[in-house]
Design brief:
alpha/beta, 14 helices, 582 residues, globular, disordered C terminus, 8-stranded mixed sheet, Metallo-beta-lactamase, Chain A
Length: 582
Amino acid sequence: MAKPKLRIVPLGGLGEIGKNMTAFELGNDAIIIDTGIMFPNNDMLGVDYIIPDFRYLLDRKDLKIHGLVYTHGHEDHTGAVAHVVEQFKGVPIYATPLTAGLIEVKLIDAKLINHTTINVIKAGEKFNVGPFKLESFHVCHSIPDCVGYGIHTPHGLIVHTGDYKFDNTPVDGRKPDYAKLAQFSQEGVMLLMADSTNADKPGWTPSEAVIDGAFEEVFRNAKGRIMVATFASLISRIQQVVNAAQKHGRKIAFAGHTMTENVKMARRLNILKVPDDMIIDLGRANTLEPHKVVVMITGSQGEPSAVLSKLAMGTYRALEVNPGDTVIVSAHPIPGNEESVSRTINKLFQRGANVIYDPILPVHVSGHGSQEEMKMMLNLVRPRYFMPVHGELRHLHQHSRIAVEMGIPEKNIFVVENGMVLEVDKYGVRKGERVPGGYVFVDGASVGDIGKSVMRDRELLARDGFVIISATVDKHNGKLIGEPEIITRGFIYMRDADDLMKQMKNTITQVINSGSSKTATVRTKCKTASAVCCSMRPNAARWCLASSTRSNAGRVGLMHQAPSVISDRGATQRVAPLFYGD
């Protein structure tokens, strides 16, 4: 019987930074590695975050998913776990202790913890997930408990590095598993899938240990309170702050729900070591002498709802930034977040804070390997085929060029984007068909309801504003009852538009009372308007004038179209567009 082909289906993380998710299929059996989120761009108005489009998996009714396997606990690898578990209830999870703990916190918050089983694995452990034989290996990153995977399949060994760098002085003392990578090479690696984030950065990425020196300098010189903003999942960075605070006799408080819950979990697992008498309640941080306090906070990416942004805007109830406070931003902006991070830092300076960030001091280093580490990985593993992953398209192409330099034939390198399938069999690796692999926007409790058309509408409203015109009409004679109501937002400053408002009201009144279908016009200096229909009242008809058109002619036309009639306790709703044009 012929062996089924191995299909590798990237659903996120290729051509972008974030929402990493890859499915591996053998016939009708599959596993998924990582289920991450991505932060929205500045033009994605109202979007909280983005998750992978995994409808391909939902549509494959014949496909049995045997497990969700995780490389580490960062949001871009675990953030969508609740959304995936909600759709694939009963599928077990496999993760290292810290990653499993972070996932557990998310599932408890989402009330989904009883819909899956979390299996805790250790680096170096071998385990089976369906027909897949997995072998984990420790890698260094900016968070503890990171692993990559060797995936043994009927068509050869696939090595997935996860996020990595070769750090020989890691904070937790656990160095990369060079021996396992060399062992994979001896067995023969069919395909290497490797992190490409820093493919355009020459040299080596600095060790996490350099941050200790920067923290020491800040803590030694700071006279007031110190607030440190970082990712809530960055437990090793929190440990470094704890160590510095302990050395300089400061108490520590934690701000932000996710930060607080992650700290509780990491302490329970004995991954984060903080003496009990060192932790204080956030409320007490305001009563102690400033030079005795450190506060760990979330929001290093300038997220509007996170603690750091609220502190910058002065809207965080439990804490305020005072002149003399030192704020450390211990993270690099994720691509797309640069503007919001810069704006937050500037606001903090306005409030009198001394803000420390890289490159002022090395208070953060990348967790991803640079070009020399990528070369080292390729030399250690020596794969037959290569697939750069985890990066924007420019990073993937640059990584492919590095692979060519290291002796891998160009025809054996596959630069693919989300949804582009790779097929592996006894004849080698080749590209397959393309499946959906786009964005799914999460806006509050709404998942996937916000599409491109809605985003375009939001951009129009943000750029042009809107006008709502509401009129109450007698259902018997069609005459206007009272004056029409005009509401605008972002369209024109009402106090300076009395003449325009009078002209618009007169035009509306004339058109409604005349019952004419002809167009009445009034000259204005307006450029655009958008409007929506209002609700109806009993015993009356409501005329709602709506438009989303634009013209440079500067003339407004009010067109009374044939009405559409909707019965509501005897009321009639008539809709006519308000438009601009000659």
